[in-house]
């Protein structure tokens, strides 16, 4: 393996993590898990956290709880799992954080950027 291929792999990994964290709902999931006792939450708790984040939207524009649950199960959790940021136990319907310190620090930077805008 060459130095250039290692640098290319690292850049691709960074791009992939940034792409995943670009989605506000995924950031909400990670923050919710970070604040959970034992870092474990049910899908219902995660859906509630996302809906709380969307509380400023007009009621007719807000997605339903079922829509959020479907997106969690089929889109957001598989994406976060693929990046090894969460573990989803489908049998017990719980999720816990597997995000390392650097991923959470990156999340802090993104949130600070949003707050400064």
How does this structure look, described?
By secondary structure, the chain is mainly alpha-helical. It has a single domain, classed as Winged helix-like DNA-binding domain superfamily/Winged helix DNA-binding domain (Arc Repressor Mutant, subunit A, Orthogonal Bundle). Helix content is 64%, strand content 9%. It has five helices and three strands; from the N terminus they run H-H-E-H-H-E-E-H. It has helices at residues 3-21, 24-34, 43-53, 65-82, 101-116, and strands at residues 40-42, 86-89, 94-97. Strands 1-3-2 form a three-stranded antiparallel β-sheet. Strand 2 and strand 3 (94-97) form a beta hairpin. Helix 2 (24-34) crosses helix 3 and helix 3 (43-53) packs across helix 4. The termini are far apart.
What is the CATH first-level class name? Mainly Alpha
Report the order of strands and helices: HHEHHEEH
Task: Compute the number of strand runs.
Answer: 3
Shape: globular
- Chain-averaged pLDDT: 87
Distance between the termini: 41 Å
Number of helices: 5
CATH superfamily: Winged helix-like DNA-binding domain superfamily/Winged helix DNA-binding domain
Structural class: mainly alpha
Q: What's the number of structural domains?
A: 1
């Amino acid at each position: 393996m060459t130095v250039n291929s290692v640098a290319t792999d690292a850049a691709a990994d960074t791009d992939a993590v940034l792409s995943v964290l670009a989605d506000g709902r995924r950031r909400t999931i990670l923050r919710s898990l970070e604040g959970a006792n034992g870092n474990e939450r049910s899908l219902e708790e995660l859906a509630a956290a996302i809906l709380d984040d969307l509380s400023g939207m007009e009621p007719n524009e807000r997605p339903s709880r079922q829509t959020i649950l479907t997106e969690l199960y089929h889109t957001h959790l598989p994406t976060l799992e693929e990046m090894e940021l969460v573990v989803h136990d489908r049998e017990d319907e719980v999720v816990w954080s597997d995000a390392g310190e650097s991923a959470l620090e990156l999340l802090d930077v993104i949130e600070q950027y949003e707050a400064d805008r």
